[in-house]
Design a protein that fits this description.
The chain has 203 residues and is an all-alpha fold. It has nine helices and no strands.
């Protein structure tokens, strides 16, 4: 990528990270949070989403294809970006680095999560409370899932901050400062929702 093409590709990468991938993440965490209300509540919520018309087509168009594009371009950005947080010690440079680290973690976590849920469902398993309870009852898997959840919520929150800058919404230092705090609160709220949901399957 070079010149104007790189500018537009990065804008598309940023956009897809928010819509539809980011929107799906928020929806997914809220659906999972029904586990805090009990097994029946979670199964009803997950069952409703899983039985939507044309669910396979919707998953590929809204989730898998945009996510794959975002991931591939994200890898390119991660390994070609010029940043040195140790030398510069700027807060935003650290956030830039952590964004790339969380993205790499998510590559492995999402692949494993899809294998354990969607691929198993295609093989005949039922994606329900019992499935998640069986997975998360293993303490190692619970820790992996919590790391994955925190990586996802950070990646989205910090990515939203970058999205607002890249798309010209927050240009002034003050607006970026306010956005930093707003996205920090967003990260905390989403993380609580996600971790509570994970713990609800085993506690």
């Amino acid at each position: 990528m070079a010149g104007k093409n790189e500018f537009y590709w990065r804008r598309l990468h940023s956009l897809l990270g928010v819509i539809p991938v980011g929107v799906f993440l928020v929806q997914h965490l809220f659906i999972n949070h029904f586990a805090t209300l009990g097994e029946d509540a979670y199964n009803r919520a997950a069952g409703f989403v899983g039985n939507l018309p044309f669910i396979i087509i919707l998953e590929f168009v809204i989730i898998y294809i945009p996510l794959l594009f975002h991931a591939i371009l994200g890898i390119y950005i991660a390994f070609t970006a010029d940043n040195n947080p140790v030398r510069l010690s700027y807060f935003r440079n650290w956030m830039f680095t952590l964004q790339r680290i969380s993205g790499i973690i998510l590559l492995f976590f999402i692949a494993w999560h899809v294998y354990e849920t969607r691929i198993q469902a295609a093989l005949g398993a039922e994606v329900d409370f019992q499935m998640m309870e069986d997975i998360l009852s293993n303490p190692i898997m619970l820790i992996i899932y919590i790391i994955g959840i925190l990586s996802a919520t950070f990646h989205l929150s910090n990515g939203l901050w970058s999205f607002l800058v890249r798309w010209g919404i927050t240009q002034s230092p003050r607006s970026q400062y306010i956005s930093t705090w707003v996205m920090g609160v967003f990260f905390v709220i989403l993380s609580i929702i996600g971790v509570r949901a994970a713990l609800a399957f085993v506690l």
